[in-house]
What does this fold into?
Amino acid sequence: YLSSDLIKGIGPVYAARITKKFGSKCIDIILNDPERLTEVEGIGKKRAKMIAEAVRRAFSEQAALQKLAALLFDYGFGIGTVKRIWRKYGDKAFEIVKNNPYLLAEEVWGIGFVTADRIARAQGIAADDPRRIEAGILYALQNSADDGHCFLPKHELVKGAAAILGVDEEKVESMLTNLVIKEKVITDNDRIYLPWLHVAETSSADIIASLMSGEGRVHITMAESLVNEAQRELGIDYTDEQRRACVDAFLKKVLVITGGPGTGKTTILKAIIFMAKRLGISVKLAAPTGRAAKRLEEATGESAQTIHRLLKYNPGLEKFEYNRSNPLPVDMLILDEVSMVDVVLFWRVLQAMPMGGNLVLVGDADQLPSVGPGMVLRDLIASKVVPVVRLTKIMRQSEEGLIVLNAHRVLKGFMPIVRNKPDDDFFMEVKTEPEDAQRSVVDFVTKRIPKRFGFDPVREIQVITPMHKGRCGARELNEILRDRLNPNARSSNLPFAVGDKVMQITNNYELGVFNGELGIVKATNGEDEIIVSFDFGDVVYDSSYFNQLQLAYAITVHKSQGSEYEAVVLPLLTEHYVMLARNLLYTAITRAKKLLVVVGTYKALAIAVRNDRPVKRYTALAERISKVLAGREH
It folds into this structure.
């Protein structure tokens, strides 16, 4: 106890000496007769006083923590959440929970407005209390950000917040004005932003415009000559659109390269890297997730990392080491899977770009937009001022088989070709009832695919589903697949067992693990710690972070973005009709490398193919880039 991290400043050596000298009476002596500590070798009066103060402080903190836990346990909080609140506020936590629990929703991860409101109402805070209304407005805005919006129109925010709070719109309008004065929200032409989103969007537009104003790195004749050399050295015959992408990467300071599967995006990157090396230009490669970075590395033969690791987040300083005042030491940055990058992460990248550097942005604009706010890739293209090369010719159709062909068919609004021949890579098993489809999905993962193709059911086969709920939703499938694939789960007292496939569902800068990373639980330590093995290494989670992990035997299509799997099993039923859309189906199909099995109905497939409704997100990045560049030209 004395040498634990609960008590600062003693350490194992002095703890051992004190315990050896006084035995079980040591705590009593430290608290009530600290001068006796000078009887221990190496401890003088000054150190004795310091040790006594450290132990008293630890006792006081533990008593306060117990008091906080007793209060919060009544509201259904687990010890992990209590610890998070304590870490944030220390000995002020109890008073904050009692006096203004809405601060928890604003400042502590994992505690939402609904939970804070339950505590507040139980303590007599009125429905029209200004603190409650302000918290409700911020909650409505945060909800919209979680749905991918960068802002909400004022009338929509007021109406939505009033409905959540059960109060008049006039009261919401009044408190919204207060929030503007306090700078907790930003108003911009009737658009209401959370401050961090307004900064991210406006600053991104400014930096893009600044980057684009730079001179090209080489003359066009030199660039074309280098493409010819790359063709000879790499043994690749580039199409006209691929050649243009290679040349523009050096003529333009910012370039977007977009295209579907099989259109040669990776082939272009190989040439760009080759050309950069010939010119003595330094290049770094990055992608939003660990899996996407690994794929990029395997495809190009060059080192690649996640954006967060590239920018080097420093948990102690709570900021990225590479930023506006300390730019990346690189001449050219290539970002892959940009459709996954939200506006905040994009802003962080732009802040770290050296002026005069080249930025090459690669992605598939037809994929689902990022989980986080914004539609960066689509907005860059929609701005009509950022240089774009759109790849349209499928380069590897014959060797890829039906997966690539069907992805492009779906994109054009045609039904996929289903033959179910032994050598195909795209299969469909018709099941109309959710219960039957569920059994079939489980059977494919646990028996049929491993037996026929030899794929590992945990590491190489991935169930991707449109929704969390339902018989074929991620939640239910996870429980069944876990039971079948991980016998350790039955005897585990923890939410996760050794061997479980898990996914990180939010960015954790302290642990250095980020949203969408997939791992396997490697070990457990007692009842409050697990070790998860990721592609980049092992991470230790204490119980306060367990709720940042989810089982990942089955994941949603949104969570699968940026990853590829040897085999994908995709349940597709009309019970998912709310989510059935063309870009969702297209994204799911393009996750499969060697095998895709659809389980469900042709009706559900047809609904998804027909439903080409554009994703509506409130974002103004495209408009801002256009305006900033237009202003600079004049």
